[in-house]
Amino acid sequence: xxxxxxxxxxxxxxxxxxxxxxxxxxxxxxxxxxxxxxxxxxxxxxxxxxxxxxxxxxxxxxxxxxxxxxxxxxxxxxxxxxxxxxxxxxxxxxxxxxxxxxxxxxxxxxxxxxxxxxxxxxxxxxxxxxxxxxxxxxxxxxxxxxxxxxxxxxxxxxxxxxxxxxxxxxxxxxxxxxxxxxxxxxxxxxxxxxxxxxxxxxxxxxxxxxxxxxxxxxxxxxxxxxxxxxxxxxxxxxxxxxxxxxxxxxxxxxxxxxxxxxxxxxxxxxxxxxxxxxxxxxxxxxxxxxxxxxxxxxxxxxxxxxxxxxxxxxxxxxxxxxxxxxxxxxxxxxxxxxxxxxxxxxxxxxxxxxxxxxxxxxxxxxxxxxxxxxxxxxxxxxxxxxxxxxxxxxxxxxxxxxxxxxxxxxxxxxxxxxxxxxxxxxxxxxxxxxxxxxxxxxxxxxxxxxxxxxxxxxxxxxxxxxxxxxxxxxxxxxxxxxxxxxxxxxxxxxxxxxxxxxxxxxxxxxxxxxxxxxxxxxxxxxxxxxxxxxxxxxxxxxxxxxxxxxxxxxxxxxxxxxxxxxxxxxxxxxxxxxxxxxxxxxxxxxxxxxxxxxxxxxxxxxxxxxxxxxxxxxxxxxxxxxxxxxxxxxxxxxxxxxxxxxxxxxxxxxxxxxxxxxxxxxxxxxxxxxxxxxxxxxxxxxxxxxxxxxxxxxxxxxxxxxxxxxxxxxxxxxxxxxxxxxx
Length: 727
What we know:
By secondary structure, the protein is an alpha/beta fold.
C-alpha cells in the first residue's frame, strides 16, 4: 500500500460512511453520463454548465467496452484508445473532472463466446448465453482487464481522476443474468457451473459423502454426480410456498452456491482494483437488492405477452443473496442500486434496494441512483414519470431527503431544464452542508430481512411481493416514525444499537444456533417483536412447533393454497383502538401453508381469512416479563396498524398523517400528497428548525413545530442547535 493519502476513501464521519476526496469529507454527488462517444459529444455543453454552476465534478459512466477482443494493430484483447477519447471529452467540458468508472465485465460480445464456447452459460432451454459466472477463464481475464485498466490510467496520468472503480457483470452490470433469473428459463447448466457446484459441495460437506447423502435425503448422490437442479426443481417447491429442508436441499444448496459465487467474484474483483490502484481509489458494485427483487422481466415489460414470467421471483437466481460476505470485505468501499422501481410517482417512497442500515453498519458508502423519470427528457413514460415540474420537484426533493437522512451519496442524470438544473445545484450545496450535521440514526424501529430464509422459499413471488416489496413501499414509510433496515445476521451478531420495536419480515428458516441467539437478543430489555406470517417455521423440518418456540404463541395451520387477508375484530386494545373497522390487508396471490393462533393466553386483535373462508385468530399480542410478542398472519400490514404497534412499543411518533417521513439526528424530511397543516412532535427540545431547501427559519416551541405544506410537495428541515444552520 502507498503511504500517500488515497485519492478517495470512505470513512465514518458524523454518524455515516462518507466520501473523503483528497482527504476532505464531502457529500458524494455525481452526474451519470449514459452516452459517451469518442468523437463529437452532444452532452458537452450540458456537462460544462453543471461544472461551472453546481460544483459537481464527479462523473459516473460505463467503460467496459475496452475489453473488446482480438483486432488489428493491438496486442491482446484490450483497447483503451476509445476510452481515452471519451475521457478527453469529459475533461474538455470540465477540467476538474473525476471519474467513477462503471466497468461491466459481462462478455456479451460474440468474439468471446466464439473463443470460449465451453465457458458460456447454458439455460434450461439449451441456449448458450454469455460467460458463466463460474468460468475460471473469464474470472482470470476479468482481473487482468481491471489491472490493465488501472495501469493504463496511471500511464496516461489520469490515476487521480479515477476515484472509483465499480465492477459489474450480468445484465446491465447488476449481477443478475437476465435470461435465466428474470424469466422462466433457469441456469446454469454449463460445464464450469456444474464443476463449481460440485467443488462447492465438497467444501461445504468436508468431502463426507455420508453427510451429503443424509442432508440431501438421497442415498445415491455423490460429489461427482451432483447436478445443477432442473428447471422444474428450481421453479416449484414441494410445499408450495416453502421448500422441504431435506428433500429439496439440492436446490437450496445450489442457490446458496450461486450467491457465494457472485459475492466471491465481487470481493475478488474489488481486491484486484485495490491492489492495482495501490489503494488510492474506491472499489464497489451494484449488489444486494434484497428489498426489491421479487419482480422479474414481466414487471419491466420486457417479455411482452409471456405472462407466466410474472409468477417468479428474481432474487434466488440472481446471486444477490451473498450480501453479508460482500459487506464484510475490507476492500469493498461502496454499493450502488437504483432506488425502488415499485412506487416512484407522487405519493410514493424512494428507498434503496438494499438493507440500508446494514450498509451503514459495515462502514460502506451507499450510492443512490437517482434515475427518476421527470416531466422533461426522453426516458420511459412508465416508472412513475412526473407529469409536470411541480411533480418532478416533489419527487426529486423526496429522494434527496431520503439520501441525506440516511447518510448516503447520490448520482443523477444531468438535465437541461432550468428548474431541474437549479434543483440539482441546490442538492449539491445542501448535501455538502448536511455532511456537517449529525447523521446518526435515531430510529427506534429495526426492520429485519433474512437473506438465508429466501433460499427456503419457492421462486413463486406470491408472498414476497406483499411481504417485502409492498410492505417496504406502503406501510413502513408512513408509520410517522423512521425505521432502519438490517440483515437479520447483523442483529444476531449483537452489535446493533438497541431499538424498541423489531419487525421480522421473513425470518422463516433458523437453525438451532440462530434460533437460540435470536431468542436471547429479543427476549430482554422490554423489547417488542412483530412477527409476520411464518416466523421460525423451518429448521431441519417444517413445523409449527418451531414457531411456538420462537414467538411464544401457540399456532394452528391450514394447507390448502389460497389468498390470505386480515381484519381487526378487537377495537379495545391500544394497538387497534383508533383503527377503522373497514381496514383489510394481505395478499391476493396463493400461498400455503396458512397459520393462525390457537392460544388462549394471547390477546386476539384480528382474524385471518384464507381457504374455505376460514376466519381464524391471526393477529395477537402476548406480554412476557422482559419482552412483548406480536403476531400478524397476513403480509403488507397497513401504516395505521404499524403505527398502533409502534406506539404500543413506546416508539416516538413524529406525526400521524400518513405522509412519508425520513428522520436522522438533525434532519427531518417529508413527502405529502394531500398537503395542509402538519405538527411535528420531536423527541427532544431543539433550539432551531430550519427549512433547508427554502432557506427559512421555522418558528418552534422547542419540542414541536408546525408547517403548512402544499399538496404534492416535499420538504427537508434541520432540527438542532441555533448556532448551526444550512443557509
